[in-house]
Amino acid sequence: MTDLAGTLQQEHLTIRDSLDLVGALVDALDRGVVPPAEDLNAVLDFMDNFTDRSHRAKEEAVFSELVRTSDASVRPLIHRLEVEHARTRQIVSALHALVPRVEGGDPRARQDFEMYLRSYRMRTRDHIREETRHLMPLVESATRSPGHERMVRELGRIEGQDSEERILRRSREAIQRLASKYSVRVRDAA
Ligand SMILES: [Fe+2]
Ligand SMILES: [Fe+2]
Fold first, then answer.
1. Rounded Cα distance, 17 and 185, in Å
2. What is the pTM of this model?
3. How far is the CA of 128 from the centre of ligand 2 (A)?
4. How far is the CA of 70 from the centre of ligand 1 (A)?
5. Total structural domains within the chain
6. What ligand has the least distance to the C-alpha of 60?
7. Of the ligands numbered here, which is closest to the C-alpha atom of 9?
8. Mapping DSSP to helix (H, G, I), strand (E, B) and coil, where does residue 2 land?
9. In a domain, 100, yes or no
10. Does residue 186 belong to any structural domain of this protein?
11. Could you tell me the distance, in angstroms and rounded to a whole number, from the CA of residue 103 to the centre of ligand 2?
12. How far is the CA of 8 from the centre of ligand 2 (A)?
């Protein structure tokens, strides 16, 4: 049986590695060094493919099931987490839009890019902390509920989508490659 909470927690570790890399990019920008567009785009691709499209989609499938099967007390937490998912998506699209101007040497764009990266890193860290403290215990206690089967099926569906595995592997490998370039320690790819 799929360990739902374990899967999500494992993904949180990978996301935290990517946040360490984001920290290294912020430090570089802070020193006036603009990383090449391909490095910036690789980190943004990871945010899009791994953190948002895959991990967030799985969590939101879990959210709907928890809202359906638990009492109303879970709703404020789920609402906060969903709002935060939407907010970080907006930040990632703002980052994407800034890349050409950052590469073009626009100092204002560089400043904004750095500010958005810092905000993304801080928010995502806090978000993972909140999920670890408050969401994971709910997911764990749902293991014996009838909704659990549906959550597992939905996770399997998201992971089994066409080319999903290949895209996720490529995103993780890009993070590993950049981690060694920017001297950040990350876990080995699973
Ligand atoms: Fe989340
Ligand atoms: Fe998460």
1. 8
2. 0.90
3. 5
4. 18
5. 1
6. 1
7. 2
8. coil
9. yes
10. no
11. 31
12. 6
Q: What is the pLDDT of residues 47-73, one digit of tens each?
A: 999 999 899 999 998 998 888 888 889
Distance in Å, CA 129 to ligand 2 centroid: 9
pLDDT in tens, 138-190: 988 877 776 777 778 877 777 777 567 788 888 889 999 999 999 998 887 65
CATH number at residue 93: 1.20.120
CA 46 to ligand 2 centroid distance, Å = 14
Q: Which domain holds residue 23?
A: 4-181
Contact predicate 138/24, CB 8 Å: no
Measure the CA–CA gap between 168 and 171, rounded to whole angstroms.
Answer: 5
Per the CB < 8 A criterion, the answer to whether 40 and 99 are in contact is yes
DSSP codes joined into one string, 130-183: HIIIIIHHHHHHGGGSTHHHHHHHHHHHHHTSTTHHHHHHHHHHHHHHHHHHTT
Distance 131 CA to ligand 2 centre (A): 6
Which of 190, 176, 188, 163 shows the shortest CA–CA distance to 49? 163
Question: Does residue 133 sit within a domain?
Answer: yes
Does residue 190 fall inside a structural domain? no
